[in-house]
Design a protein that fits this description.
The chain is an alpha/beta fold. It has 8 helices and 9 strands. β1, α1 and β2 form a beta-alpha-beta unit. It is elongated and about 70 Å long. Bound molecules: 5-[1-(pyridin-2-ylmethyl)indol-6-yl]-1~{H}-pyrazol-3-amine (JCE).
């Protein structure tokens, strides 16, 4: 899987060389390239923004640098197997299903906007050539797309076979189908007693059936309290 990031802050993506994702890069499972969008500017000030047509506050990202970056990175031939992800507050919510689908992609290009956003014609042009996903990280406003791209990258890449040491852990996670789409149960480790708090006895019983039942009940109760929207049978 090749991941490209178009951004005016390429150093944001240096962190992808750390930990699990770093190992995936070392193992050749993932190939990461961050690009400074100003590479595709030609004026002395390396300008990437301009005033919004129709007025309004702030600045908008000019289309030219994006188009030239696309030309260099992707060429002009349409290829629906290339996924262009554009983080935006007006996108569809990024969910685990999106991460699962994108984890099968061979190529993903993240377009990280700043200012008040990217000239919409960039999205129109990209949509004619590649598979475009305008995605929101959540119902809050960030200053740009980089943090969202990092979060989406981690959610996507951890699902790629060979990236996680223990793929079994994927099936027990919140939002996974094996977890029935419920929130994850509380987890504990040693010591059995810590600052007056004890590990639930059932987890020390060694009775796997009782433990599984307790975990199911915990997941349902937690989901009922915090995320009733995830419960389908009520
Ligand atoms: N879930 C999300 C995604 C974003 C996001 C993604 C990309 C950009 C490019 C610019 N901004 C700032 C901005 C602020 C106000 C209105 C428009 N844009 C972004 C914000 N915020 N929250």
């Amino acid at each position: 899987m090749r991941l490209d990031y178009l951004t005016i802050f390429p150093e944001f993506f240096d962190v992808l060389g750390i930990s699990l994702l770093g190992k995936a890069v070392d193992n050749g499972i993932v190939d990461i390239h961050a690009h400074d969008l100003r590479t595709w500017t030609h004026d002395r000030h390396r300008t990437v923004d301009d005033t919004p047509c129709g007025g309004g506050a702030g600045m908008v990202m000019k289309p030219d640098p994006w188009g030239e970056a696309f030309d260099d990175l992707l060429g002009a031939d349409p290829d629906p197997s290339v996924h262009v992800v554009i983080p935006t507050p007006s996108g569809t919510p990024f969910r685990q299903d999106d991460a699962a689908q994108l984890s099968h992609a061979d190529r993903i290009v993240f377009c990280c906007g700043r200012y008040e956003g990217i000239d919409h014609r960039v999205i129109d042009y990209a949509s004619e050539h590649w598979s475009v996903h305008e995605l929101s990280l959540g119902d809050y406003v960030l200053n740009g797309g980089e943090v969202a791209a990092l979060a989406m990258t981690e959610a996507i890449v951890r699902l790629v076979p060979g990236v996680l040491g223990n793929p079994e852990s994927l099936s027990e996670e919140s939002y996974s189908q094996d977890q029935e789409g419920l929130l994850e149960y509380p987890v504990y480790t040693r010591p059995a007693s810590w600052r007056g708090w004890d590990v639930p006895e059932v987890l020390m019983s060694g009775h796997h059936g009782h433990i599984a039942q307790w975990r199911r009940e915990q997941s349902r109760e937690l989901t009922r309290r915090r995320r009733p929207d995830l419960l389908t049978d009520e």
